[in-house]
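ingest -> validate -> predict -> emit
validate: passed (alphabet ok, no gaps, 437 aa)
predict: started
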Amino acid sequence: MKKKPSLILGLIAVLSLVSFFIAFFQPDLNFNLGPLKIRKELYLRKGLDLAGGVHLVFRVKSEDLNEENREIALVSLRENIDRRVNLFGISESRVWITKALSEDHLIVEIPGEIDPTQAVALLGQTAQLNFQLEAELPPEATASATVYDLFSVETELTGANLTQAEVKFDPNTGKPQVGLSFNDQGRELFGKLTQENVEKRIAIFLDNFLLSAPVVKEPILDGQAVISGEFELDQAKQMVSQLNAGALPVEIELVLQERVDPSLGGESIRKGVMAGLVGIVLVAFFMVLFYKFLGFLAVLGLIIYTLLSLALYKLIPVTLTMSGIAGFLLSLGMAVDSNILIFERMKEEVRAGKNKLVAMELGFGRAWDSIRDANVCTLIICFVLFNPFDWGFLNSSSLIRGFAFTLGLGVILEMFTGIVVVRAIMRSFYKPKEIKK
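emit:
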C-alpha cells in the first residue's frame, strides 16, 4: 500500500510541475525526436468578447442550387473557409452558416488584432489552383514573355487533386520545405508529369499568380512530393496556406464588415475574474474550516485541478470566452461537491464503527457511484450543448459551445483529481484523528 501511493504521488507531483510551467509561462514546444516533430505555440487564446476582433457576414449565392447540392455546397464552404482562416494561424476563429430572410449567410468571427480588409481578401478569394508546364518558345520571344506565357502548357492536374500541403523540414539541413500529398487520380497525373518532365519545371499557379516553379529531379510515383529551396519558415507556411486554400464551391458576397471591441470591456473582465477568485477563496476557506486537514488536502487537489485545466487550455488549444470561464468555475464547484460526497461518506462509515483508515477507502469506493452518475449526466448535457455533429435541431452558438466544452473538460479532470489525485494525497498524508464522529 505504501509503495503504490508514493509512486502515484511522485507522478502527480511531476504532472503538476509540468502543468504549472505550461500554465504560467509561454513555452513553445519544439521537439525533434526522429520522425516525430512537434512545434506548437502555447498561449491562452481569447474569444471575441475578451479580445475583440473582426466580424464578417457574407451572403452565399446558393439560390440556383437544388436542395441536395445546396447542403453539400454549404458544408464544403464552411469547411473551406474554416481551413483558410486556421491555416493562417487564427485557430480561435468561428465560422458558421445561418439562414436569414430566405438567404444563406456565412458568418466569420476572428478574434485578435486582424485587419478586416486583409481578412476579407483572404476569405473571399476564389483560389483556383493549377499545375502548368513550360512552353517551348523561340529565343526572341522568351525575353519579352510573361511568367504565364513561359508556363502556358496546361495540365489535367489541379487543386482538386491535392489532398494536403504541409510544412516539412529537411532531415539533413533542417531547412523548411513544402510537402504535397495527392489523391489517387492526382498521384497518377503527377507521376506521369514527373516521368515526362525530369529536369524541367512544373509551375504552380494560384489565380494566375505564380506560387512556385520547382524543377523535377526524378519521377515521383507515390503521390508524395517535396518542394525544397531557400524558404524561410514564414514563407513555407504562407505557401502551404495558399496551396490548401482550395476553390470555393459557391460565390460569396460581403454584406457586413466590422471591427469589434471586447464586448465586456477591461473593467468587466477584471470584475468577473475577481468574482471568480473570491468565490474560489471562500470555497477553500469553507473546506478547511469544516473539514480541517481533510479540507486542506482537498484544496491542494483543487489547485492541481486548476493547473491541469490551464495547461490543457493551452495544449488543445481552447478559446476562452466569459461563458467558457463560467464553465470552468462550474466544474470547479463540481470538484468541491465530489470531495464533500467522499468526506461525508467517510464520516458515515466511521459512525457505523469502521476503522478510520478503512472508512477512507470505503468512502472513496462508495461515493464513486454518486459522483459517476452526476458527472455522466453532466457530460451528456455538455454533449447536447456542444452539438459536435452540427445537428440542425440543436444549438450551434459558439458561446454556448465554449461553455459546454470547458465544463465537459472540467468534469473529466474533476473525476481524475477527485478519485486519483486526492486519494493518493490522502493515502500519503491523511491523519485519521481529523475525522470526528
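The domain at 3-40+265-434 is CATH 1.20.1640.10 (Multidrug efflux transporter AcrB transmembrane fold).
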